[in-house]
Amino acid sequence: MTTALSTEELTKIEAHITAHKHMPGALLPLLHAIQDDIGWISEEAYLPISKALALSVAEVHGVVTFYHHFRRHPAGRHVLQVCRAESCQAMGAEKLEAHVKSTLGVDYHQTTKDGAITLEPVYCLGNCACSPAVMMDDEVYGRMDNQKMAELISEARGA
Amino acid sequence: MVKVFVPCDSSALSLGADRTAKTIVVEAQKRGVEIELVRNGSRGLFWLEPMVEVTTDKGRVAYAPVQPKDVPSLFDADFLNGGAHPLNLGLTEALPWLKKQQRLTFARVGIADPVSLDDYLAHDGYKGLKNALKMTGAEIVKAVTDSGLRGRGGAAFPTGIKWNTVLGCESDQKYIVCNADEGDSGTYSDRMIMEDDPFVLIEGMTIAGIAVGATQGYIYLRSEYPHALKTLNEAINKAEAAGYLGEKICGSNHTFDLEVRRAAGAYVCGEETSLLESLEGKRGLVRFKPPLPAIEGLFGKPTVVNNVISLATVPIILDKGAAFYANYGMGRSRGTLPIQLAGNLKHTGLVELAFGATLRELLYDFGGGSASGRPIRAVQVGGPLGAYLPESQFDTPLDYEEFTKIWAVLGHGGIVAFDDTVDMAKMARYAFEFCAIESCGKCTPCRIGSIRGAEVIDKIVTGKDHAKNIQLVRDLSDTMLNGSLCALGGMTPYPVLSALNHFAEDFKPRDFGLQNKKVAA
To answer: In this complex, which of B186, B227, B440 lies closest to A87 when CB atoms are compared?
Structure first.
């Protein structure tokens, strides 16, 4: 699936490049700025980034694909991350994962049909004292169970 | 006016602290009562969050856990004056969980508003820096060396020795890099410092900069910690405005600038050389050592790379002296360790203690046993690359060398408990799977070994060439241990082999693979 960027989005990318290109080690801060703004990093951004930072397009692609955080496709309106790490496993994360997947009808790295939620695995949210934990966008939720999960999902779908 | 404290730590928020705070404010307005709401850090008693505290003339009184529905009854019970209520826990300071601890690095955590510089100064903040400004770089490094502080990120390398190497390097530019890529499951002490007492980290990094002659610092913060990012940036701005960062720090001739850089979800970037690559804007591939980062680190310049807790411990060492800190602990493990209780425990949270307490004391005296009420069967200490310990090893004292003796690691001080429903073959398989997902791909033992390892565990539990494949896992682990470039591949055998050695019964052939724990007859 290819999604072309709008002129407005390309202008935004140019502005981020201008704002970041003189930073030492600029590539990660720049990619963060683009993703925070547009929601994902399109291959259309590779060429202008590579020119501004004196890198090859392959190097930019290499960095974007190395890090789990950067997404190469648009996400849903919300991103739900379910923790799969040991502490959460000790408190039933596996059952929670299965429940979330069946409720949403998607597997990891997929988006629900209504475009509301993209499901991602995560390996520790630093909320291990309140396992199992999930993160919806930038908010962490602890001691999750199916009931709390259902409330969180319906809230996200409504918003 | 009565001060009401409701934590803003993200674990407290994850249990609804914002809603509790809002309900208290609304209820107070409704009743025409004036209160001052303070969003403090967490005291670290996470099974009791959201914990609300009020100031009384006897001290702070705690009510916990407080959900919005409890708020009207708290007002009815005159909780603003410490009134009796089923959720009243008495004076916070008198809670046994806190009283039994030795909080040095975490001395201020949970007490005040994390981003109030006035609160920080009122609670002994920046005393360490004031002392450091009167000392030479070599004297500061000596104090850190004499304190016995060792890297709290996991490798336990003496902090003072690392600093001394950077101090001894001639260079036009040096860097202080804080490793805040706290990716180990079961750990959250870095997050707590950054969210609940960010100035102590800023002060520690400033002292490090003055000691070794570095003028630029970076905090490499994992992207999973958005609250810490916000808090750190707010605190850095305030420190700059007050002359604690930037040029002429506190009127001296020292300059130190600090910037937070966001990581991007790669566990391997917690490894120091991979972290430096990432900070330089590259893929987080592990570097060969030597050269040591202390000599050729960030952008090829001498660089101190320290964990959050190591740096946040420096201010108290400079404030109270190396001897004060070194007086805590046992053997070569000096000072205190902020221990994080996680997983299947009744009482999870932050426990800072001098080295030497046993795992059993932490699991039962502090942790209160399992949350599920079932027996604790296995405990993983030190994150996803730490060994699984059986009950017979619960009397091991928390000490770097004692853990080495039982082929285990203390790591970053995270303790994850599992009850007797855990399937240890599954945990061993998960260790390989995690390594495969997070491998940077540079060295073969880690990149390929992890994938083959997970496959072999599948064969073992389905009974395919059982004895042969058990031996194969051991051989593979040996290759990974000795042939990997960094700790990711090199330590994945710890959880795998400890599971196999201590819980061999879980590796017997079974009918339905890992989906069913039932062992075949």
So the answer is: B186
Report the pLDDT value the prediction gives residue B510, as an integer from 0 to 100.
87
Spans of chain A, pLDDT less than 70: 1-2, 159
Q: What percent of chain A has a predicted confidence (pLDDT) above 90?
A: 96
Contact by Cβ (8 Å): B373, B344: no
Mean pLDDT of chain A: 96
In whole angstroms, give the CA distance from residue B491 to residue B489: 6
Which stretches of B106-263 are DSSP H helices?
117-122, 127-132, 137-146, 159-167, 189-196, 198-212, 226-241
Q: What pLDDT shows up at residue A2?
A: 58
- Inter-chain CB proximity B262 and A86 less than 8 Å: no
Q: Give which of A32, A34, A86 to mutate to test B binding, by max B Cβ within 10 Å.
A: A86
Cα distance between residue B77 and residue B67, in whole Å: 15
A82 and A154 in a single domain? The answer is yes
Q: What domain range includes position A144? A: 78-158
Contacts of B108 (CB under 8 A, 6+ apart): B120, B123, B124, B125, B197, B200
Domain ranges of chain B: 2-95, 117-326, 329-419, 424-515
Contact B187 A53 (CB under 8 A): no
Residues in chain B where the model's pLDDT stays below 50: 518-521
- Rounded distance between C-alpha atoms, residue B517 and residue B521, angstroms: 12
Domain annotation covers residue A60: yes
Cα(B98)–Cα(B59) distance, integer angstroms:
15
Complex ipTM > 0.90: yes
Superfamily of domain B2-95: Glutaredoxin (3.40.30.10)
Count of the separate structural domains present in chain A: 2
How far apart CA B244 and CA B254 sit, in angstroms, is: 10
Report the pLDDT value the prediction gives residue B188, as an integer from 0 to 100: 98
Fold observed for domain B424-515: de novo design (two linked rop proteins) (1.20.1440)
Q: Rounded to an integer, what distance in angstroms lies between the CA atom of residue B109 and that of residue B43? A: 6
CB B43, CB B52: distance < 8 Å: no
Question: Tens digits of per-residue pLDDT, A89-128?
Answer: 999 999 999 999 999 999 999 999 999 999 999 999 999 9
> Cβ contacts (< 8 Å) between A28 and chain B: which residues?
261-264, 278-279, 281
Partner B contacted by A134 (CB < 8 A): no
